[in-house]
């Protein structure tokens, strides 16, 4: 099918369709399709183009408006969707559906190259791309697999609804999103793990400009879903510039409720990104269950009109483990919620000071909370590290004396040091009745 225009009025389902359930449609090709619908928010959904259970469809060039979405691809294989321009897409509040640029459901081996969605206030538009899923009875995988999406652009104006992120992923496997801009939305990339794991997801080379529109309504640039049974696993976020700021900075809105990365998954990498987050926001927020994640090469920028204290760069909001943090550039405090972490590695030296006075120990200068307890006894000092310190880090421990004493690390096991204390002359000292000061130093 080459070129052409179509106008649709009344209650419709699709402007055009290629549906293997009704006719043979493999290998369908559509070029330069222009269509205007008349779909309303309270009416029945209608899409400019349906592709259903077809193989090797090639769509190149669509300019459509006033539909529930531009393209709906259901259980397709080897589809190529490119150069789609759409506006005035219609969201149906009663159905919690509609407002899409490209809607993919159980699609396999798909290229999406060039989707441009303009989104306005009210029911005008929602998601530039929705990577969704449908229940199946044939035993096949009920999600999208093997997706490469590039050149994705969404311009949001006065949307003011954080439930409408630019791109959404549901249950899926091996999905790539590169070369994209989401500008002015209240959410960037959203994940919904309600129906199954989101596996092997790579996002990069993008810019997200996310706006907070209401105090108390947290907005997120990247938000991994949480569920008691399912999670994101195998994710890479790289080479992005992320802004999360109040919509206005005239005192109407505070500088809270802004999050760049909200992580809840496992086996992931966040690297080579710049975050510009409001001073009272959270550049990186780590939820309970997050494990085996590397955060490497992140620059934090603060450029706002606020005067409140800076919140930490990385906030641990629940029990998590095996987190690696390195190559961070920020003027914020580094961490909050360190008691929630088990086994965290960093690439800088950490230091704490211990002062023992007549057998009573006081910990100070412990910026990164590395020490849990210090117990002076008759024969030795027992130092227990915090749970976020790894055993490997404990093995690097050094003791630097601040008084006329010498110290020997006699034992190192289970994140615990056993330290013997001596005078300068080498005479053994009883820690439980003595006074001394020393630093505990952990190397990277």
Descriptive labels:
444 residues, mainly beta, Pectate Lyase C-like, 2 domains, 13-stranded parallel sheet, twelve-stranded parallel sheet, 1 helix, 35 strands, disordered N terminus
Cα end-to-end separation:
62 Å
Q: Helicity level, as a percent range?
A: under 10%
| Largest sheet: number of strands, sense, barrel closure | 13 strands, parallel
Mean pLDDT: 95
Number of self-contained structural domains: 2
Our estimate of the beta-strand percent is over 45%
Shape: elongated
Q: Rg to the nearest angstrom?
A: 28 Å
CATH fold topology of the largest domain: Pectate Lyase C-like
Can you walk me through this structure?
With 444 residues, the chain is an all-beta fold. It folds into two domains: 5-346, Pectate Lyase C-like, CATH 2.160.20; 350-442, no CATH class. The protein is built from one helix and 35 strands. It has one helix at residues 391-394; strands at residues 5-7, 14-19, 29-36, 47-52, 58-65, 69-74, 80-87, 91-92, 97-98, 100-105, 108-119, 127-132, 144-156, 167-169, 172-185, 187-191, 198-212, 219-223, 232-246, 258-263, 266-277, 282-286, 291-301, 314-316, 320-329, 335-336, 341-346, 350-357, 360-364, 371-376, 381-385, 398-401, 405-413, 416-423, 436-442. The protein has a 13-stranded parallel sheet with strand order 1-3-5-7-11-13-15-17-19-21-23-25-27, with no helix packed on it. Strands 2-4-6-10-12-14-16-18-20-22-24-26 form a twelve-stranded parallel sheet, with no helix packed on it. A four-stranded antiparallel sheet has the order 29-28-35-32, with no helix packed on it. A hairpin with a 2-residue loop joins β33 (405-413) and β34. The longest helix has 4 residues, at 391-394. The protein starts with a strand and ends with a strand. Residues 1-12 have low confidence and may be disordered.
């Amino acid at each position: 099918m080459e070129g052409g225009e179509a106008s649709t009025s009344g209650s419709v389902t699709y402007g055009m369709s290629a549906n293997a359930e009704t006719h043979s449609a493999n290998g369908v090709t559509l070029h330069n399709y222009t269509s205007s619908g008349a779909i309303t928010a309270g009416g029945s959904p209608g899409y400019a183009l349906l592709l259903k259970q077809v193989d090797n469809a090639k769509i190149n060039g669509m300019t459509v408006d006033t539909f529930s979405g531009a393209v709906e691809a259901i259980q397709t294989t080897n589809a190529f969707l490119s150069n789609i321009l759409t506006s005035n897409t219609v969201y149906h509040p009663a159905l919690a559906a509609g407002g899409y640029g490209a809607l993919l459901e159980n699609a396999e081996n798909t290229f999406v190259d060039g989707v441009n969605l303009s989104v306005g206030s009210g029911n005008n538009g929602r998601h530039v791309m929705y990577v969704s899923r449908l229940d199946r009875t044939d035993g096949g995988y009920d999600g999208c697999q093997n997706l490469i999406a590039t050149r994705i652009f969404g311009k949001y104006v006065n949307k003011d609804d954080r439930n409408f992120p630019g791109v959404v992923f549901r249950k899926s496997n091996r999905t790539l999103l590169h070369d994209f801009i989401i500008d002015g939305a209240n959410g960037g990339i959203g994940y919904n793990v309600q129906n199954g794991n989101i596996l092997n997801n790579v996002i990069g080379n993008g810019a997200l400009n996310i706006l907070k529109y209401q105090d108390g309504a947290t907005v997120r640039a990247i938000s991994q879903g949480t569920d008691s049974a399912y999670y994101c696993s195998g994710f890479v976020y790289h080479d992005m510039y992320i802004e999360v700021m109040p919509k206005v900075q005239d005192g109407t809105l505070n500088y809270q409720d802004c999050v760049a990365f909200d992580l809840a998954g496992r086996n992931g990498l966040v690297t080579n990104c710049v975050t510009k987050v409001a001073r009272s926001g959270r550049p990186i927020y780590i939820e309970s269950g997050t494990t085996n994640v590397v955060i490497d090469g992140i620059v934090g920028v603060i450029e706002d009109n606020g005067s409140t204290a800076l919140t930490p760069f990385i906030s641990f909001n629940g029990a998590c483990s095996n987190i690696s943090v390195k190559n961070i550039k920020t003027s914020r405090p580094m961490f909050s919620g360190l008691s929630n972490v088990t086994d965290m590695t960093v690439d800088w030296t950490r230091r704490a000071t211990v002062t023992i006075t007549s057998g009573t120990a006081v910990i100070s200068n412990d910026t990164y909370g590395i020490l849990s307890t210090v117990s002076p006894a008759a024969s030795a000092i027992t130092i227990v590290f915090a749970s976020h310190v790894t055993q490997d880090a404990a093995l690097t421990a050094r003791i630097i004396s601040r008084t006329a004493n010498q110290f020997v690390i006699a034992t190192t096991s289970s994140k615990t040091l056993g330290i013997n204390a001596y005078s300068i002359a080498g005479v053994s000292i009883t820690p439980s009745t003595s006074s001394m000061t020393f630093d505990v130093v952990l190397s990277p």
